[in-house]
Design goal:
With 362 residues, this protein is α/β, with parallel strands linked by helices. The chain has 2 domains: 234 residues, no CATH class; 119 residues, Roll (CBS-domain), CATH 3.10.580.10. It contains 13 helices and 10 strands. The strands form 3 sheets. A 4-stranded mixed beta sheet has the order 1-2-3-4. It has a 3-stranded mixed beta sheet with strand order 5-6-7. α1 crosses α2. The chain starts with a strand and ends with a helix. The relative contact order is 0.07.
Length: 362
């Protein structure tokens, strides 16, 4: 199921909206219409449609500022040679998907600080504009000026909340960058992630009694810290490992004329869930158990592998890093990649091969 939709590109980076963002946007709009005027809310604005239009505008502007926050990270990352796969706006903010975390603590520090700096700049400018108009008694208590103040204030909150030293928030990355200057990178990550988890547990406990939204945020922080810790450990463990060191060279193939029923028997016999498909010794596709599941049992006797296989082949070279192949597997959500040398298949790498290598090296 596709959970994100791409709405465009900025600096060559795909911008995506996650389904959770689309669900939370009207909730935020409703919340802003309930706030009192002294907090920048619109609960006294009439007519009702104008009130909800202001609430929706505040929500859209807030998430636009979150996008700018993430673009701040991405700009510095690209400047230091890191590639950004995409930026996705989620339920509780945005995430820049970086293909490789910089190991230089100074570069990571710059990247981590860039996002909050953008939020602080936006918030400061908007609040200064509001104060100038207020002192000049222009548009006094105007709903539009409340909107300016509210978005400015929320950006200030976004800045300082992200600087809390709880991984994987920006403050946690600042902490890891500082620790990485004093200890091995993987140990710095474990320490920063551990602090992030403790913060999430405290926040979740506090939110359980006072605000359930804090508990939800704490849950995402805890999961994010765990995933970042695991990802970093895998990257460090596989450092220097080449595809040739982990690939399977004895590759079982199937013919384009093999029936799906015969393919199921082959899967039972060889215990593999995916096979390259050949036509006169030429690789033409890949067929997996997922493809088999799409064919009704009663049709498997007559259906051919050529009818259900995937023709878009993702390949790698034996000289590639194991980490890069793992990223290819994850990014394309596939279980195996063909390894070719001069257009000739010489092996295959599956997720199992990569995970086995991680376990053995660990």
């Amino acid at each position: 199921m596709k959970t994100s939709i791409e709405i465009g590109k900025i600096m060559g980076i795909p911008i995506k909206l996650h389904i959770t963002f689309l669900l939370i946007l009207p909730v935020f709009a409703w919340m802003f219409t309930r706030y009192d005027p002294e907090f920048g809310g619109f609960n006294d604005v009439e007519p009702v449609m104008f009130r909800y239009s202001l609430g929706l505008a505040a929500s859209v502007l807030l998430f636009a500022c979150v996008l700018l926050h993430e673009l701040g990270h991405s700009y510095i990352a690209k400047k230091h040679g890191s590639n950004i796969s995409n930026i996705t706006l989620f339920l509780f903010g945005g995430v820049s998907s970086m293909e490789e975390t910089p190991k230089d603590p100074k570069n990571e520090l710059k990247m981590a600080v860039a996002g909050p700096a953008v939020s602080l700049l936006i918030g400061s400018v908007l609040i200064i504009i509001h104060e100038i108009f207020r002192q000049e008694s222009l548009f006094l208590d105007s709903p539009y000026m409340r909107l300016v103040w509210l978005v400015g204030f929320l950006n200030i909150v976004l800045c300082f909340f992200n600087l809390i030293p709880a991984f994987p928030m920006d403050g946690g990355r600042v902490l890891r960058a500082w620790l990485a200057g004093k200890m091995p990178y993987i140990k710095a990550t474990r320490t920063a992630a551990g602090i992030g988890k403790m913060f999430a547990i405290f926040m979740g406990f506090f939110g359980f009694f006072y605000n359930i939204m804090l508990t939800l945020i704490a849950f995402f922080i805890y999961i994010g810290a765990s995933e970042e810790e695991k990802s970093t450990e895998v990257n460090v463990i596989l450092e220097g490992v080449k595809v040739r060191d982990i690939m399977s060279r004895d590759v079982k193939t199937v013919s384009v004329d093999t029936t799906v029923e015969e393919l199921v028997d082959i899967m039972f016999k060889y215990k593999h869930m995916g096979y390259p498909v050949v036509d006169d010794s030429k690789i033409t596709g890949m067929v997996t158990f997922t493809d088999v599941q799409k064919v009704p049992r009663e049709n498997r006797k007559n259906a051919r592998v050529s009818q259900i296989m995937s023709k878009e082949l993702i390949t790698a070279s034996e000289d590639d890093d194991a980490v890069s192949v793992l990223k290819l597997l994850t990014r394309n959500d596939i279980g195996r990649i063909l390894i070719k040398n001069d257009d000739k298949m010489i092996g295959i790498v599956s997720r199992t091969d990569v995970l086995r290598a991680v376990q053995l090296l660990e």
